[in-house]
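User: Sequence in, structure out. Go.
Assistant: Echoing your sequence, followed by the structure tokens.
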Amino acid sequence: MSSGGRIGKDAPFMPRYCDIRWFSSTEACEILSRFEKVIVVGDSMMRHVVGAINVLVREDLGYGAVTDWNFTPQEREDCFCNHQFDVKTCSLQGIYKTKDVEKNDPAIEVMLRHPLDPTEVSRLISLLPTSPSPKPYAFILGHGLWNDLDLARTIAWVTDLLTAISAHSQHLVPTRTSNEDENKKRGWKPPGYLFLPPNAAGPLKPDEWLVSQGDKALQLFEEAVREEVAERWGDGIEVMGTWNMSIQASKYDGVHLDLRGNLVKAMGVLNWLAML
């Protein structure tokens, strides 16, 4: 995922050094059912990952990522299919909670706001158990643009997040592969952690951000995050780079991918979950 690419604008993405399986909706549901919870923490790009997973789970390419049950006729036209992720037109109609889907179109939870504040931390903690559960937990983290690609602040964000998690659920801290045998003896599987850096920049990115958040800065940030995370947490947290996957993909505002790009990213996440 981190080193693949596309041959032309919006051409199919081809991974390098690995295969990405395109799961059916039934298979996607089966993968998610292996976990007690899949918790997504991050910004609007992470919300779009959840939206794309909802498209797959709901088997609805037209409106799977949005709250189509309360649409006006105009919104049904504006936010159909590839336009579901148009942050200028359809952002407020995005699905924020799995409970909304279960209620209106019968467990993924989302924490969106940043920086972390007590209310958001409380929301996160409410999702966590105090003791190990039979099924594992998985955490998908995404961060970067809101801190202007400041590596130190991003690592501090991850550290604060893990501190909050470990204070309530010590067994959910990142675990290196070398320690997995010890956890298995205790009768529970360690959590999975995946970090997703921001997408590549597109031509609609505002000029004032092209230096601090342009493609050079994004590539350097992605590599720096991978190195820093590996040094601090080993393979307890993995990093799935998205720059190569997204550089030739359409973006509504120079940042956010359309349905096609987000489905590829979501499928990468599902492939990672399937390997845990």
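User: And one key feature?
Assistant: The mean pLDDT is 86.
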